[in-house]
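G., the chain you wanted modeled:
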Amino acid sequence: MVAEVLERTYTVEEYLKLEKTSEVKHEYFYGKLIPMAGEKRKANRIVGNIYLAWGSTLLQQGFDLFSHDVKAGIDPKHLYRYPDLMVAPLNPDAGDDYVVFDPVLLVEVASEDSWSKDRSKKLKEYTGIPSVLYYLLVFQEEMYVELHTREGDKWSFDIFTEPDEIISIPKLSVDISLAQIYNFVKLSQ
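Predicted structure as tokens:
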């Protein structure tokens, strides 16, 4: 299902103020508000599995881990997204409790409906953020994960499809197996 774009054009300031009290989350795209659809339980479980695997290790290393309800400021004047999971340097004095502007890792859990957008549009947006070192794209219907990694000014990617494969994030000193990511997740294939 494609989210309907609200007609009125909003400034960034209006958007950020509205999001603090809105019962519905919206992504912000060049003045337009895009309502966020709910997600399947399996997508939520995948995010939870990653969070549980990495949470305390990342915190001990000076990183914060955010899921679902904290926005990534892709382009502070034009574009805000809600990644499924986001890792950023620990910064208790950040100016905005609702937005992260310096993520180092972003995770999207893709459905059949969102796969194309997550793999093209969001890939381009996320890899355009100077601080981002990794983009992890997890398909929720079958065991398939892509890890996009910044190497200097170039990007490479690896594909993982087997339960015993280990995804390593060396610059954050964490790793995870596909079996951990998909633990208790009923796959379609």
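Residues 1-37 form one domain.

Shout if anything looks off.
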